[in-house]
């Protein structure tokens, strides 16, 4: 069975070692980096299923590391920040982070979020090891859960893990209207504090990637005063 591998990039030694210890208890393989430069170096040498990334790190900060990673991979990224400001959270999500947690935090919560991200993108098969979810097809749009790619009119469009999960959830329930709170609970998890900005940032990013005209979306439509719905005709071919 293929083992899940996690990269932790955190400059504070005590936090880094504590996270490593707890995440290894889940039988995950864990590598650690003390700064952004080391994190990028390890990424080039290994394949990871999830990255835990501190926002404030020496040499190369977490924002720049996240940007560089998103140029090469769609692996889920959990960002850690000591700043409890809305702007920092939005910046992290805007550059490609899938989730964030603010210091001080419970180590058990970090582990829970790590497992939740894994659970949403990987199916643990008893015989075949890790198997990604399957293809979801609509007229003009296909969602490949294995490659983290969306096809729009035969053009490949790469999504982050959380963008893909949000799109997959909505596309699995076409024409159903969801409030921002419902989307947050279903995609980010019931245990998290609801955050409308998180949903809106990801909706905006998705529209820029999959819509011909993001200001007049065809697939992800706004239902004014309520929330959003996905509109698409399933392709059974």
UniProtKB/TrEMBL annotation:
Where's DNA bound on this chain? Answer: 133-232
Compartment(s):
Cytoplasm
Tell me the residues on which 4-aspartylphosphate occurs: 54
The alphabetical list of record keywords is: DNA-binding, Phosphoprotein, Transcription, Transcription regulation, Two-component regulatory system
Q: InterPro entries in the record, alphabetically?
A: CheY-like_superfamily, OmpR/PhoB-type_DNA-bd, Sig_transdc_resp-reg_C-effctor, Sig_transdc_resp-reg_receiver, WalR-like, WH-like_DNA-bd_sf
UniProt entry tagged with the keyword Transcription regulation: yes
Domain (Response regulatory): residue spans on this chain:
5-118
Residues in domain OmpR/PhoB-type? Answer: 133-232
> What Pfam families is this protein classified in?
Response_reg (PF00072), Trans_reg_C (PF00486)
| Cross-referenced PANTHER family | PHOSPHATE REGULON TRANSCRIPTIONAL REGULATORY PROTEIN PHOB, REGULATOR OF RPOS
This chain belongs to the protein called Response regulator transcription factor
**Native source organism of the sequence:** Metabacillus fastidiosus
